[in-house]
Amino acid sequence: MRRARVLVGVVALAVVAGIAGAQESYPTRPITLVAPFPPGGVADLTARPVAASLEKILKTPVGVVNKTGAAGAVGMQYVATSRPDGYTLLLALSSISIIPEADKIFGRPPAFTIEQFAPIALVSADPTVLVVRAESPWKTAREFIEDAQKRPGQISYSSSGVYGTLHMAMALLEHAANVKLRHVPYAGAGPALTAILGGHVDALASGPAVVLPHLKAGKLRALAGWGEARVASLPDVPTFKELGYPDAEFYIWAGVFAGKGTPEPILTRLRDAMRQVVADPDFKGAMDKLETPIVFKQGEEFQRFFDADARRLAAGVRRVGRIETK
Amino acid sequence: MTETVHNLLLGFSVALSPPVLLYAFVGCVVGTIVGVLPGVGPLAGISLLLPATFGLDATKAIVMLAGIYYGAMYGGSTTSILMRIPGEAASVMTCIDGYAMARKGRAGAALAIAAVGSYVAGTVSVVALMFLAPPLASFALRFGPPEYFALLILGLLVLAYMSSGSMVKALAMATLGLLLGMIGIDQMTGYFRFAYGVVELGDGIGVVPVAVGLFGLSEILATAGQETPPAVIKPTLRELLPSRQEWKDANWPIWRGTVLGFLIGIIPGSAHIISSFVSYAVERRLARRPEEFGQGAVAGVAGPESANNSATSGAFVPMLALGVPSGPIPAVMLAAMMVHGVSPGPLLIKQQPELFWGFIASMYVGNVVLLILNLPLVGVFVNLLRVPYPLLYPGILVFCILGVYAVNSSVVDVWIMLVMGLVGYLLRKLEFEPAPIVLGVILAPMIEMALRQSLAMSDGQYAIFLTRPIATTLLAVGVLLVLLSFKSLITHGFDWRERMAMAEKGDEL
Fold first, then answer.
1. pLDDT at site B186
2. Which residues of A are less than 8 Å from B185 in CB distance?
């Protein structure tokens, strides 16, 4: 009996020591960075260099796993329900705040909630830009908005899908400028871009990097951006804020999250590591090639950004509401 | 012309430089493996290997990825012909006549014809890509949702030629397929349809698990259920090569498949998958003896296998000429370029001549490599059939499960495959054919999306299909085809379907 008690004690001590040890020496085994979108997308292309730099800094293998499906919900749910031990991280985009809200308005059990995640660091935040075809009549954002006010529901735009990031950007603009546009959803940002190049829709909200070559080639024209400041690669394109529509603010951002309940020392270690990641020349070079500026926020600052963004998007999703077919 | 020759020389100087040649070769080998593995299709293969290309330069990366794409089309026919397991979605049709040929001891011939057809299609379509890319790309972009819808409706008419049995059964199976295709997130409203809380079903039922289950697993189950195991085929060397007659039968289908596949391939979206289905239907429509289809018709292998290969080159047209992510695979390849700081766009050919012409030249080289690789492999693969069934089939089963799981790391997909295997087995017993189900699963989400996008564009006006020339023409062709099928009613002739039914009953014609 006594022996058994000792044994229990020893085992308990070993377990406690093990946990404490694990925390001190985190990481002791490979880390998985989940990108909830397929290879080649923004999440994947950001996750790869993040993983490569983290690997150098934490001195442990960091593998990117594309857990895709249901517009990212599958991968995000996976991380939300994984053990919060710092070994399963998530590289999420803005849509992390949209999906639970969309679940809510449909009255279905949410795949996950944003409360299930502990933010680690923001890596990039690219404002979307409004583009139209070069031969279209609108030379400025003001002309576009005035025309849209005159002809409600006549000007069409493509998006990456309902409640997708590119849809939400436009929905925020519609509300801010009090206009009604015609939405033609596509299955992904690529097809949405193809649609405007083919002349099947009039406008598109897009990340700046993918439309840049088409702007340079004179196929598309950028009218305005959704950012707080102008896009560095498009210095002549004003922001909606400048034009007097401060509510039209939207970013396609990428950030790293852990599961809620991850021990604080591990979160601190990861935040610290992420600060070194964004300073890593290799990482900077990779992001340069993608023409995506690094925007780094962590801890409190990231939490504030994340909360404000989530509030904006939640309100946007609620305003869009359920899309009922006529 | 001289400029093109000059450019092509530049391209070959890039493509034949040892490092580029090596990566083209690696791409082709990986592609063949990806194609052979059941379940893993070119998109999955390219996606899995994309990260491995980040360390290379843009030309090498894209040459290797392209090699995987068209290499998969070569490899895809192998398991279809030998084991009735579609290596990827585009080789579903090859399962029918390719496998029938194999059962008749002509597996070697079928594989050789598939390889040569793929080679002809690959090479000819690269010529077309080289000369016609810029003008064709602008044309391809004019395919918006209404045009796409009209094209897919034409694709549905293909059904009439897919089964040799009862038309009612074929339509029933197509309906089942279309219904299965309805599962998943409604792309236009965000509703989850028939997902029953399974988040993984949000993306719908994948074509690959369905095809592998319906064709491959059902075949394994059916064979296992036989009282005496089928005799193991022992091919001799002489039987590996197609006969003179088989070459003759393959000739025109290869050329028609090439042209057809290329034209369907350039259209943005995922229409390239249906190229092999359409080719099969065309061959059957044109065949002098359509009743041979399903029993091992050479044209039923030659046409679709050529079509799916030239469709891959077609898919590169808008991607290279305009930098447009015109489909899932071009989108991944454009990402590979962006990672290397090459911004894909309309100026790509001008700004990156080494990349464009190197890529073109590497496709010529790659197709030769694949032919050299695949013809001797015919002998190796055919010998797989010598493996006794009790060893062969469990092995195949393992590969099917691994392949289907690997694509999305999704156990749900594996279950779909297993359920479809049982469904396929039951359908076989009841003499239903599975191919229309697969076509239904492919077409349902695409047709629905295109129709609803069109109506979103026109604010609900159906007139949009009659005001756009391409869409209207395609729909008119469809109506014409339907009317033509009524011809026999008027002239009181029997079409092949009725002739077959009568022959089965033993009636004299």
1. 84
2. 70-71
Distance from CA of A188 to the nearest CA of B (A): 9
pLDDT at residue A10 greater than cutoff 60: no
Tokens of B468: 């756009």
Contacts with A44 from chain B: Cβ below 8 Å: 50, 335
CATH number for the domain running over A30-125+251-320: 3.40.190.150
Q: Which residues of B touch A198 (CB under 8 A)?
A: 141-144, 268
Query: What confidence score (pLDDT) does residue B35 get?
Result: 87
Reference A36, options A76, A89, A96, A81; nearest CA is A76
Euclidean distance between CA atoms A128 and A224, whole angstroms:
9
Q: Do B284 and B144 contact (CB within 8 A), yes or no?
A: no
Q: Tell me the C-alpha distance between B178 and B269, whole Å.
A: 19
For range A247-252, the mean pLDDT:
93
CA atoms within 13 A on the CB side of B441: 22
Domains of chain B, residue spans? 2-505
Q: What is the pLDDT of residues B19-66, one digit of tens each?
A: 999 999 999 999 998 888 887 888 888 888 888 888 888 899 999 999
* B236 to A215, B106, B163, B302, B382: CA distances (angstroms): 61, 10, 32, 22, 10
Distance CA B19, CA B61 (A): 11
Calpha distance B439→A171 (Å, rounded):
36
State whether A289 and B323 contact (CB < 8 Å). no
Looking at the complex, report in whole angstroms how far the Cα of residue B169 sits from the nearest Cα belonging to chain A. 33
Q: How far is CA A168 from CA A70, A146, B437, in A?
A: 17, 21, 36
The domain limits of chain A are 30-125+251-320, 129-225
Q: Is A143 on the interface with B (CB under 8 A)?
A: no
CA nearest neighbour of B64 among B74, B75, B73, B52: B52
* B97 CB-near residues (< 8 Å, 6+ apart): B110, B293, B294, B295, B296, B297, B298, B299, B300, B301
Cβ distance of A39 and B322 shorter than 8 Å:
no
Q: Which residues 226-285 in chain A show a CB within 8 A of chain B?
A: none
Characterise B134 by phi-psi region: left (phi > 0), alpha (psi -120 to 50), beta (else): alpha
**ipTM of this complex prediction, to 2 decimal places:** 0.86
Angle at B117 between CA B46 and CA B152, to 5 degrees: 65
- Cα angle, residue B464 at apex, residues B463 and B467 outer, rounded to 5°: 85
> Is the domain covering A129-225 a CATH 3.40.190.10 domain?
yes
Inter-helix orientation angle A165-177/A95-105, to 10°: 80
Task: Give SS3 for B320.
Answer: helix
